[in-house]
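Q: How would the structure tokens look for this protein?
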Amino acid sequence: MNLRCRPAAVAGRFYPDSPERLRREIAALLADAGEVAEECPKALVVPHAGYVYSGPIAASGFATLAGRGDAIRRVALLGPAHRVAVRGLALPDCDAFATPLGRVPVDTAAVAALRGLPQVVVSADAHRQEHSLEVEIPFLQAVLGEFSLLPLAVGEASPKAVAEAIGRLWGGDETLIVVSSDLSHYLPYADAVRTDAETARRIVALDPAIDHRQACGATPVNGLLLAARERGLRVRRLDLRNSGDTAGDRRQVVGYGAFAFFETQREERRHVH
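A: Here is the predicted structure in token form.
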């Protein structure tokens, strides 16, 4: 069968294009990330800048998945559309996504689960150059090994519309939800620290009132917060830093946070298919 594959668009810019170097860099980032969660998260919020800037913070989220590859078989990955205007949530028009670490198949059952939702569209253009989803995939490949992917580039949509799509994808232990978002953009260091601390407080409180000045992925983040609140999840802040902490220049920085969402009443949780 001839698979239609979306090739890596930002390898060599946002992260290494050499498979060996990419594996080494991710392994080092994960090793530096600290403790692994005792329980497996249902969802993560992680940043999506170049690895030199946000890689350590992203690794703090992905490190919680260490040893979970046998359990997690599907990842629903949502991130903001930066390059192409999207009305709603855009699926790709392909069968797989490629990175220097190999191909990840698009989950056909998850695509079918979204069928009929008016806010879900198909747009190859929305995915062709989009980095917010791509930069997370090598981390997922490193920690999970084999899995299938449901990638959504999120544009103009309400938090409720995003939460509805996430609900269709919720599944059980086999499904992980990842939302890709940076936090504040181009503020002086001290202002960014204050702004990002307030955004982090809202995320931990499951308060879906984040705006796009606080997070470029505010739309998918708010949708996840709504879905998590409905299901009684609890949130743990794993990391909160900015590019002034990782890359040195503090005059104008971009904020990054990593957050893990855990199901608190596993026996009572609702599986939405």
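The longest helix spans residues 189-204.

The longest strand covers residues 253-262.

Upvote if useful.
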